[in-house]
Each structure stands twice: as structure tokens, then as C-alpha cells.
TrEMBL record:
Quaternary structure note: Homodimer. Forms a membrane-associated complex with FtsX.
ABC transporter domain residues: 2-226
Native source organism of the sequence: Kangiella sediminilitoris
Main location: membrane
Lipid bilayer topology: Peripheral membrane protein
Protein's name according to its UniProt entry: Cell division ATP-binding protein FtsE
Role: Part of the ABC transporter FtsEX involved in cellular division. Important for assembly or stability of the septal ring.
Gene name for this UniProt entry: ftsE
A GO BP annotation: cell division
PANTHER family from the UniProt entry: CELL DIVISION ATP-BINDING PROTEIN FTSE (PTHR24220:SF470), IMPORT ATP-BINDING PROTEIN (PTHR24220)
């Protein structure tokens, strides 16, 4: 599903956030990405979503070298990916329903199909009864679930989550991780950046550990440079 071949990322200003990262995430796998603050975890996820471009190396997503994806094709590329952020990035002046419907509207889904799909996504995260509420009226864990419903409403084959439990207590964090496992069990590939080593250890999924932009531990296959 995802292959990184000796990927480097240097930001404007000269900081090298990734220094030759290689790994392969097979289709249908769930894995964790960990490492100290500033190790390059968010950068790695942003490269997959084409929120940033690599300086060197190749990233293959679904057999496509994403360096060849032109800027105008990025919205189509992103439809393969559901992104979940620590701060959820919900629209706080819109209802739960409207937040989850937004990706469908952007993707041009027919109006008549939207309610059913929004409710299916809210049902999966256990929030069917909250659709008329504003995000501010929900708990932190519920807000994160809305973020997850929004990420999965288009049924992307890949979920990328950046510290999705960073603001949650241990019990809620476990619930959110279990939710990711449920999506994984129906075939969705999942890559989660997290600091929470205790939670990661309990989940028993492969781990990639970054240190100062390099892979220091990789329980996923290293990929050969073709
Ligand atoms: N847009 C940017 N411009 C310049 N430098 C950046 C930019 N984004 C990130 N960096 C730098 O790249 C390095 C890696 O950042 P990144 O956000 O990928 O780390 P991280 O492992 O996700 O950290 P955290 O766990 O704190 O979120 C850091 O030193 C950071 O300061």
C-alpha cells in the first residue's frame, strides 16, 4: 500500500526532518509510527498525503509513484486517504452532521446519497444520536470520533492519524485505538503516529521508530530500492 524508498525531506530554512527513511506498509496492515518530539513523524504522514513533497527518494502509494502526482491532482490523491489530527480540525460553527458531510460534498457525491453515508459513518463511531449537536457540545473523545467519522465517510483504503489520542485520557485513548482496529479488520490500512508507548505496546501492531529523521527500528519490511 505504502512504500518509502530512501526518503529525505529538507524544509525551507534547511532543517532535514527525514534522512533516508525506507519501509513498506502492506495493504490491510495497521502499524504505529513513534519517536521523540521532532523525530519526523508528522512530516512522514504529510508526505504521504502530499501536504509536503519529499526532497529526495520515492514514495509509492497503491503502485503509483506520488512524485508524479501533479498539484492539481492532489484532491483525487487525498480521496484515497482519511486523515485524523490530534486537534481534530472540526468546523466549530457547523453541526456534527455537517462536519462529516463535508468530504462528500467536496467529492461531488449526489445530495440524495449524503444522509445515508453520513449516518453510516456516525454509526460506526457510535455518535448517531449526536448529529445535530455542535462540536463544542461534545467531549474531547466524542470530538475525536467526529474527526474519525469525517475521515472514513468516503471509505478511503488508508487512514493516517497524527497523535489521535494526544489529548485524551487512557481509557478514551484505548477506545479510539480500538475503533482504528475495527476499520483495520474490514481491510483498511492504518498508520498511526503516537507518543503513547504503553498503549502501542498493548496493541501488538508493527512499529516504526524514528530518531532525528532516521528509522532506528522497523518491524515492517524494509523495501528494496528499485
Ligand atoms: N514547515 C516546517 N518548516 C520547517 N521545519 C519544520 C516544518 N515542519 C516541521 N519542521 C521541523 O522538522 C522536524 C520534524 O518535525 P515533525 O513535526 O515531523 O516531528 P514530529 O515527530 O511529528 O514531532 P511531534 O511529535 O512534536 O509532533 C522538527 O525539527 C520540526 O521543527
Amino acid at each position: 500500500m505504502i512504500e518509502f524508498h530512501h526518503v529525505f525531506k529538507r524544509y525551507q530554512g534547511g532543517h532535514e526532518a527525514l534522512k533516508g527513511v525506507s519501509f513498506g506498509l502492506p495493504r490491510g496492515e495497521m502499524a504505529f509510527l513513534t519517536g521523540h518530539s521532532g523525530a519526523g513523524k508528522s512530516t512522514l504522514l504529510k508526505l504521504i498525503a502530499l501536504m509536503e513533497r519529499p526532497t529526495r527518494g520515492q514514495i509509492i502509494l497503491d503502485d503509483i509513484n506520488i512524485s508524479n502526482v501533479k498539484d492539481r491532482q492532489i484532491p483525487y490523491h487525498r480521496r484515497k486517504i482519511g486523515m485524523i489530527f490530534q486537534d481534530h480540525r472540526l468546523l466549530f460553527d457547523r453541526t456534527v452532521y455537517d462536519n462529516v458531510a463535508l468530504p462528500l460534498i467536496i467529492a461531488g457525491v449526489a445530495d440524495r446519497d449524503i444522509p445515508k453515508r453520513v449516518r453510516a459513518a456516525l454509526d460506526k463511531v457510535g455518535l448517531l444520536n449526536k448529529e445535530k449537536q455542535l462540536p463544542i457540545e461534545l467531549s474531547g473523545g466524542e470530538q475525536q470520533r467526529v474527526g474519525i467519522a469525517r475521515a472514513v465517510v468516503n471509505k478511503p483504503p488508508l487512514l493516517l492519524a497524527d497523535e489521535p489520542t494526544g489529548n485524551l485520557d487512557p481509557e478514551l485513548s484505548q477506545d479510539i485505538m480500538s475503533l482504528f482496529e475495527q476499520f483495520n479488520q474490514v481491510g483498511v490500512s492504518v498508520l498511526i503516529a503516537s507518543h503513547d508507548l504503553g498503549l502501542i505496546a498493548r496493541m501488538k501492531h508493527p512499529l516504526i521508530t524514528l530518531k532525528e529523521g532516521r528509522t532506528i527500528r522497523n518491524e515492517l519490511a524494509e523495501v528494496d530500492f528499485a
